[in-house]
Amino acid sequence: MPGLDRRFGAGCPFCHIVRGVAPARVVREWADVLAIRPRGGGVTPGHVLVLPKTHVPDVAADPVVSALTMRHAAELAAEVGDCNVITSRGTAATQTVLHLHIHVVPRRPGDGIQLPWTAAPQTQTGAGAERGSGPGRPGHERRAGTARPASR
């Protein structure tokens, strides 16, 4: 299409923010990356989205742009302390906007956010209560291609 700027995705809400045609609360801006507050404020105070100014649909589409974006997300993470730094690729992985974005979510003890890989608190019901899973414990699975300790 003549005159189409390939840096922007047609109909992409993050591209609209980058171009200045949609509102956003900008937290920080670098030459090629923007950090904004999520609509609705995010899941914790201080939650930000870090996104490249160039349209890249997800983290795998352009490793160079992804690395630059992660570099700036890491700078913000260093400033906030304990946090989750998360991106998703694809709808099955909960990506809802097809423009690379990295969530920096500040955390504090007792904030109530439970991630799927976070172990639920264990309750002890007796001397033989299960204390979680890990190597040598029931429920632990080794991934294919991972090394096992050498036998002696």
From TrEMBL:
A motif (Histidine triad motif) lies at residues 99-103. This is HIT family protein. Gene3D superfamilies: HIT-like (3.30.428.10). Signal peptide: none annotated. Residues 118-128 have a biased composition (Low complexity). Residues 111-152 are annotated as: Disordered. One of its GO terms (biological process) is nucleotide metabolic process. The active site is at H101. PROSITE patterns: HIT_2. Residues 13-114 form the HIT domain. GO terms for molecular function: catalytic activity.
